From TrEMBL:
Gene3D superfamilies, per the entry: Homeodomain-like
Protein's UniProt name: TTF1 factor
Coiled coil spans: none
Gene designation: Ttf1
Origin: domain of life: Eukaryota
GO cellular component, one term: nucleolus
Native organism: Orthonyx spaldingii (Chowchilla)
Length: 349
């Protein structure tokens, strides 16, 4: 299949396919396209975002079955083969012979690459080593000075996962402010977000940048752009005094404030209607886990608000309305709201 055809067929399953590199498209055409078509026949949509508990169990099952099939000693050997140079050739041969890509992704409607990364995170023994000691933090700073941001190399030297060392370095590389955000810091954050989105729009050859040309104090970014993944480590560098997780949390709070300004969605009649709509839409999703819910789509149920606003309102709803909610599963909470609270709210309305 030629590249253009592959991209066109994948677009049906992956809306952001135009942003994916040519090499990734070729790999997805080989590993994913037929899987996606099979899932479509079964009425199952391709998923992104957080993995559910059900999917994690399926990955665990797939890995265990592949180990049993091939006789490979451990999940670490299977997923981190470079750590075992003496066995590398044998493991690669077994992976090829027994169709590792197909087996590991069986039953999971997601791109293979995401499933593979999730499996590596689940089965990496270096992921769960607890807090960094003072000595480890000093080691990390020295290794970063020597090897730059080669987190794979540094993770091998420290016996920690790539993600762990990258995130920890992000936290300790400079004096980080843990207090309230100042006006200057907040403005730096807004400017940084504006800059990365402007660059993204330029890269995509967008015809108009007018939504970005308004003043920094206005909600100047198109709603769709706000919800896209942003390069938080880059934004962290531009802000200077906060690490990336703080920047992301602050941006979400700014976004929620801007997008909900002037809305009285949870007061009076509007509030009751919003709760009714939210409960009905959640019930219709038939989701077993909160991570299965498309919160962006759900936000339309109660108004032009961001997902964080909807999630916060759902949290308040379950805490105030569902007895012993901590002991209930997500689906049990939704069933209770639908069966017990919905009729009450409709009568009140």
């Amino acid at each position: 299949m030629d590249l253009d055809t592959a991209r066109q067929e994948l677009e049906e399953f992956i809306p952001h396919v135009k942003k994916i590199s040519d090499s990734s498209i070729r790999k997805m055409a080989g590993r994913d396209l037929m899987r996606f078509k099979e899932f479509k026949k079964q009425g199952i949509a391709v998923k992104f975002g957080r993995f559910t508990q059900k999917e994690n169990k399926q990955i665990q099952k797939n890995v265990e079955e592949f180990l049993s099939l091939t006789g490979i000693d451990s999940a670490e050997k299977l997923l981190f083969t470079s750590r075992y140079p003496d066995d590398k050739d044998t493991i690669h041969r077994l992976k090829t012979e027994h169709h590792f890509c197909e087996k590991i992704s069986e039953g999971i409607p997601r791109p293979w690459r995401l499933i593979y990364y999730r499996a590596r995170k689940m089965f990496d023994p270096n992921n769960y080593k607890g807090r960094y000691t003072t000595e480890e933090k000093e080691q990390l700073k020295k290794y970063q000075a020597l090897h730059g941001n080669d987190w794979k190399k540094i993770s091998e030297l420290m016996s920690r996962s790539n993600l762990s060392v990258a995130m920890k370095y992000s936290e300790i590389k400079s004096a980080v402010n843990y207090g309230a955000w100042t006006k200057e810091e907040t403005q730096k954050l807004k400017n940084a977000v504006k800059e990365v989105i402007r660059r993204r729009l330029n890269t995509e050859n967008t015809s108009s940048l007018s939504s970005l040309e308004e003043s920094n104090t206005d909600p100047w970014i198109d709603r769709e752009q706000l919800y896209q993944q942003l390069p938080w480590t880059e934004i962290e560098t531009k802000v200077g005094s906060r690490y990336w997780r703080q920047c992301k949390q602050k941006w979400n709070s700014i976004l929620t404030s801007k997008m909900t300004k002037g809305h009285q969605l949870y007061r009076g009649t509007n509030g009751l209607q919003a709760k009714i709509n939210l409960i009905k839409r959640l019930y219709e999703t038939k989701a077993e886990d909160a991570s299965e819910v498309n919160w962006d789509e759900l936000s339309n149920a109660i108004g032009d608000v961001p997902r964080t606003y909807v999630q916060a309102k759902f949290y308040r709803l379950k805490v105030s309305s569902v007895p012993l909610w901590r002991r209930k599963t997500f689906s049990e909470i939704i069933d209770y709201l639908y069966e017990k609270k919905l009729p009450e709210f409709e009568e009140m309305l």
